[in-house]
Amino acid sequence: MKYLGCAYYPEYWGADRFETDAKLMQAAGINIARVGEFAWSRMEPKEGEYTLDWLHQCIETLARYGINVLMCTPTATPPEWLTSKHPETCLVRADGVRAVHGARRHYCTTNQTYRRFSATITDVLTKDLARHRNIVAWQLDNEFGPELSWCFCPDCQARFQAWLRERYGTVEELNRRWGTGFWSKDYTDWSQVTLSNDLSSYSSRTLDSKRFWSAMMIEFAEKQSDIIRRNTPHVMVTTNGMGPIYSHIDYYKLFAYLDVACDDLYFDIGTMDANVCAMNIFRSIKPGKRFWVTETGSGALDHNKPPHPLQFRAWAWSSLAHGAEAHMIFRWRTCLSGQEQELQGILEHSGQPRQRYKAVQNCFLELRKHWENLQDLPPPDAPVAIVQDYDTLWGYEASRIGSSVKYTGLVYDVHKALWRRNIVCDLIPTDRALNPYRLVILPSTMMISQEFAERLNLFVRNGGTVLAIGQIGMRDDSDNYLPYPGPDHLQELLGIRIEGGMYLKSHVEADEALWEPAPKSRDIEVGITGVLGAKKVHGSAGTWVADVSLNGASFLMRFTDGAYAEQPAVVSRQTGGGNAIYVASTRLDTALFGEVLDHALSQARIQHGIATPENVEAIRRANVVFLVNHTQSSASIPMDTPREVMVGAYRAGMADLGPYGVCVLRY
Ligand SMILES: [Zn+2]
To answer: Which of 201, 278, 290, 627 could bond 663 through an S-S bridge, CB–CB 3.0 to 4.6 Å?
Structure first.
């Protein structure tokens, strides 16, 4: 780890505090402060009048205390004078109502006036601040995305129509690709085609709307990045993402243009397996590079559960273990006013360093003592890749099945099963190279391009293992079902034909109606039995099952009941040196999925990691093992004798972890 820091709001606290704050930060082990992302009205109080002296003074004060700066463009919160004079810069919601000033992220991403003002403030700031060598990176805006709503204004509609024209050429081709023949949806002119985020419209239209909004946000980010790079080419450019899986913007494309992937990762918002999934995603977004945690909490978010001081330490060690290069706290001091006045900073409202400051200080000084020995370790070795495809995600969200088959939930379930085995995985887009992996998992990847299928084929022929689950290759890239059996382009590799499928809801009883679920209406499970390796295995499937016929694959397990009784439930097919396994349901019970996963892992010759109790993680990086206990119970993990106990306690063949304990062993 290289940077330990916090978000700092000098425009709010004023110059009187700069010296005091910088001194306290230094004493807490902080060496980076994020500054400026909401400060536009203090940087440019009137149009074209810039007041940046306070900013220079702040950055210089931080420099004197050895503190670097992650400087931000302030475009997340336009000043009142801008939106009053140019109300068209505010976004329009789906119901046609324009957002009013007073929140944040209420601007229209495509509006040319907003883009011009954003370009100007970014140009002025980057030129004016270029001399400060302690600015090590620029952050664009803050948490890009539809915080209030995506925009439906006339500018966005016109850009959407131009974007569609470029994609489809003619309205007739758009009609053909979207399959508009049902419910009289044919278009005759581009001006008729408007944005939609509504399940009552064609799913193709909603899918393309989601692609468009993501593309516009990325275009905005790229134009802003170009200005920064022109004025300060030596400084990294980034933005702060969210997630594990952030569903509104294709982060693989967004961060491809930026220098480092950053996540605002509030460990208390998600379960620990979701937090680890987030770190695995942000490590995967830019392969071979470290990720940054640009925000996490040291105290309670709003008036909610505060972390235990030792739990805060466990999160920071987990972040370091997973390959973070920065771990930053939101925020330095609890605000007195505004929308987030209950969200606890490191300092109290009073500005005094109390318990949270001490917890941060203890943790950061400990991390700094060790990071020289740990920061050059290679990233964790990931033998498994989970494919995380934005087209599939948006396809599910755009169609009504999204409420039944939660795509992100499928990805998280697969990730959790790997994490429970302490096996590190990457989460990759479909265009990523597959050769670094031994097992590639496709959780209901609905859209399979020929190009991706060919690479999957090559991967298996060369000895790799593919585990495909559920609704694989059943739709085209406009979110329409295929008019022929699936999986598209993968019939040979998987050795199957998917003719259709069935959602597993209970049948309508005599005393109930389909539309008014009685207590009896419920999701049902269907049994599965068979042999994996040499082991007899039973379990159940839920949510959706596929109607599969064999096309060269071998039968491993079959459904025992339901409409598809005796039909294939789990099959596999050898190709070249590798193997492809297909699971004919979107959801297996946890134990059964564990058996199928273990079978795939054994085919791929991947062993489980170090055995640990639930929510105690073990991450190996080269010759160092990190053990982090995220629970309130003590845990003892049998471990070989290390060369050095770097952190924590080891005795008599056991690493001893107290509540939220950490142990780092070098071999
Ligand atoms: Zn707009």
So the answer is: 627
Predicted structure pTM score: 0.97
CA–centroid distance, 408 to ligand 1, in Å, is 28
**What number of residues does the chain have?**
667
7 DSSP β-pair partners:
34
Cα distances (Å, whole numbers) of residue 429 to 79, 452, 553, 556 = 37, 10, 27, 29
Ligand 1 centre to CA of 114 (Å) is: 10
CA of 198 to the centre of ligand 1 (A): 17
Tell me, in angstroms, the distance from the centre of ligand 1 to residue 492's CA: 45
Close Cβ partners of 210 (under 8 Å, ≥ 6 residues apart): 197, 248, 394, 397, 398
Residue type, 149: S
Spacing, Cα 397 to ligand 1 middle (Å): 22
Tokens of 353: 């360093």
Q: Residue 466 belongs to what H/E stretch?
A: strand 465-469
Ligand 1: centre distance to CA 436 (Å): 41
> Ligand 1 center to residue 110 CA distance, Å?
6
Tell me which residue has tokens 């011009």.
Answer: 116
Calculate the alpha carbon distances from 68 to 132, 134, 167, 351 in Å: 10, 5, 44, 21
Q: How far is the CA of 160 from the centre of ligand 1 (A)?
A: 10
Give me the pLDDT at residue 102, please: 83
CA of 212 to the centre of ligand 1 (A): 12
**Distance from residue 215's CA to the centre of ligand 1 (Å):** 13
Please give the single-letter amino acid code of residue 348: E
CA of 194 to the centre of ligand 1 (A): 12
Question: The sheet that has 649-651: what strands, in order across it?
Answer: 635-638, 654-657, 649-651
Hey, what are 149's tokens?
């709503």
Q: How far is CA 393 from CA 387, 397, 481, in A?
A: 11, 6, 15
The rounded Å distance from CA 216 to ligand 1 centre is 10
DSSP secondary structure letters along 294-327: EE--SS-STTSPPPPHHHHHHHHHHHHHTTEEEE
Please tell me whether the peptide bond between 331 and the residue prior to it is cis, using omega within 30 degrees of 0: yes
Residues 6+ apart with CB under 8 A from 250: 214, 218, 390, 429
- What distance lies between CA 150 and its chain's CA centroid? 19
150 CA from centroid of ligand 1 (Å):
8
Give distance in angstroms: CA of 254 to centre of ligand 1. 19
User: Vertex 262, ends 258 and 268: CA angle to 5°?
Assistant: 165
pLDDT digits over 108-156, tens only?
999 999 999 999 999 999 999 999 999 999 999 999 999 999 999 999 9
- Specify the pLDDT at position 375: 84
Q: Given phi > 0 = left and psi -120 to 50 = alpha, else beta, which region is 518?
A: beta
- Stretches where the chain sits below pLDDT 70 are 516-521
Ligand 1 centre to CA of 151 (Å) is: 4
| Residue whose C-alpha is closest to residue 125's, from 57, 51, 15 | 51
Nearest CA among 203, 246, 255 for reference residue 477: 203
User: What separation in Å is there between the alpha carbon of 105 and the centre of ligand 1?
Assistant: 12
**Residue 346 phi, psi dihedral angles, 5° rounding:** -70, -40
Closest CA to 220 of 89, 327, 402: 89
The closest alpha carbon to 321, from 283, 295, 365, belongs to 283
> How far apart, in whole angstroms, are the C-alpha atoms of residue 37 and residue 534?
58
The tokens describing 288, both together, are: 């071979």
CA of 109 relative to ligand 1 center, distance in Å: 6
